[in-house]
Design brief:
Number of helices: 16
Structural class: alpha/beta
CATH superfamily of the largest domain: Class I glutamine amidotransferase (GATase) domain
Number of domains: 2
Distance between the termini: 54 Å
Helix content: 40-55%
Low-confidence stretches: 470-476
CATH architecture of the largest domain: 3-Layer(aba) Sandwich
Shape: globular
Strand order of the largest sheet: 5-2-1-6-7-11-10
Strand content: 5-15%
CATH class of the largest domain: Alpha Beta
């Protein structure tokens, strides 16, 4: 019995060693890729000075909306989706504001020139607070966080505050949620609950309206939160028109819509690991910026890939600056003429760009030898065709995970595409086999060394049977 037990332990021990060897190389590869992607998400713009861009005009009598972007940047969907929904009504002065007016990165490599800094906004409003302040997710940065939180507490709190996704972190840090109900992205809710126990956090609702503070769930829940702001300040008819203009079919007038109480599932975790560790560093999508592109259309291309880490995106244009439909200024990171085969395909967001294709963009795609895609050829919600493209070019599980992260309501039957992320799975398996092969080689070498060390030796230290210096017959 003891012999059998020892044999089982030896087999288990050897199996454990093989498992560790299989996981070692993929683990190192995952950590390197994850670290690289994390540093890419909010890379600061390489701009020496602020381009000569005039801030938009102010129309007296209209409510003012300030969308805050920190000095370290902000989430692209959290920023651009509310901007587009609110600006499309024509009922508001809508500005992007930051502690300092300098180019900042939006998630995925889209560089924005804020309209105003805090001091400029204060002068423009004569010391009054903006009527509405929108707080998107911002990357953690000690100096920027301190300045944004102080401004929220001293200035924005005198108006209506709309937190989007994990922008709730900064609003909670400012103490504006204390004693109130609030919501945030389901993925970050547990951490915020631990950090801010004075807030009554709720799950499974698209937004919560608590007086002068409205909080939304993640990302596309900001559409509903923005429509709620429009209802309160411009009326339900204007809100319904804004929903139609955005192609948003899920508008719930007067009350927040319910949604599933999402949590991370094992399949979600596997897809996330495969994309982040074994695909994100190999896929790059060039996003071509064109004048007059809609802000929501821009977000629909940059956000899905950046959120699920399936690919990197890079902003490309033929000009030094690009103005969006409602007047935001963006700086491309590459010139169209320099497009090479280091991008896997080009995507050109915008219905206007799709209706009037640019011959220069087509020529750039041909020179690089990459596919060219205009996702917004048909009217509708801008994210729909991009999610369909993601499913076709990557796989359906990645598209479903993206939809869940975006908090985009299920549209029924999903798009076509591969049933599993096979390419990153194969890469993981091959990396694991490299580790097992390395283990086998080490064991063979160790066995050879051990066998040689156990062979009998002569009095002069030579292995018995090996030729000596004077053994001419053996040498021959």
């Amino acid at each position: 019995m003891k012999v059998r037990g020892a044999r089982v332990l030896r087999v288990l021990g050897r199996g454990l060693i093989v498992l560790v060897a299989f996981l070692l190389v993929p683990s190192v590869e995952f950590l390197i890729s994850a670290r690289s992607f994390a540093s890419y998400r909010y890379v600061p713009p390489d701009v020496g000075r602020l381009p000569a861009v005039a801030p938009p005009a102010h129309v007296p009598g209209k409510p003012t909306v300030a969308i805050v972007v920190g000095n370290a940047g902000a989430n692209v969907a959290d920023t651009l989706v509310p901007y587009d929904v609110l600006a499309s009504t024509g009922k508001f002065n809508v500005y992007t504001v930051a502690p300092e007016r300098r180019p900042v990165p939006l998630l995925g490599g889209l560089d924005l020139v804020p309209d105003l800094d805090f001091a400029q906004l204060d002068r423009r409003l004569g010391g009054e607070a903006p009527d509405v302040t929108v707080v998107p997710e911002m990357p953690s940065d000690e100096d920027s966080d301190r300045r944004v939180v102080a401004w929220l507490r001293s200035t924005a709190s005198r108006g209506l505050v709309l937190s989007v996704c994990t922008g709730a972190r900064l609003v909670a840090d400012a103490g504006l949620f204390d004693g109130r109900e609030a919501t945030t992205h389901w993925y970050r809710l547990a951490g915020l609950r631990r950090a801010h126990p004075a807030v009554r956090w709720r799950r499974g609702v698209r937004y919560l309206d608590d007086g002068n503070v409205i909080s939304t769930g993640g990302l596309l829940s900001s559409v509903d939160g923005s429509l709620r702001v429009i209802e309160r300040l411009a009326g339900p008819d204007t809100a319904a028109a804004a929903a139609r203009a955005a192609g948003w079919r899920h508008y719930s007038p007067g009350a927040p819509a319910r949604m599933p109480e999402s949590r991370l599932s094992p399949s979600n975790a596997i897809v996330h690991i495969l994309n982040l560790g074994y695909r994100s560093d190999t896929s790059t999508i060039g996003v071509v910026l064109t004048g007059g592109v809609g802000e929501l259309e821009l977000a629909s291309v940059f956000s899905p890939y950046g959120e699920v880490k399936a690919a990197r995106t890079v902003a490309i244009a033929s000009t030094a600056t690009v103005r969006s439909r409602h007047g935001l200024t963006f700086l491309p990171r590459r010139r169209l003429a320099d497009t090479g085969d280091d991008v896997d395909r080009l995507m050109v967001p915008g219905t206007a760009a799709a209706a009037n294709p640019d011959a220069g963009i087509a020529a750039a795609a041909r020179r690089a030898g990459v596919p060219l895609e205009y996702p917004h050829r048909q009217p509708g919600f801008a994210f729909d065709p991009v999610l369909g493209s993601l499913a076709r070019t990557f796989d359906r599980p990645t598209a479903r995970w993206t939809r869940k992260i975006l908090e985009y309501p299920d549209a029924g039957r999903g798009p076509s595409g591969p049933a599993w992320p096979w390419a990153p799975t194969l890469r993981l398996v091959l990396s694991g086999l490299v580790g097992v092969a390395a283990l086998a080689i080490v064991r063979v070498i160790a066995q050879l060394i051990r066998t040689r060390s156990l062979r009998p030796r002569t009095a002069d230290g030579r292995v018995d049977g090996s030729p000596g210096d004077g053994d001419e017959e053996a040498k021959s």
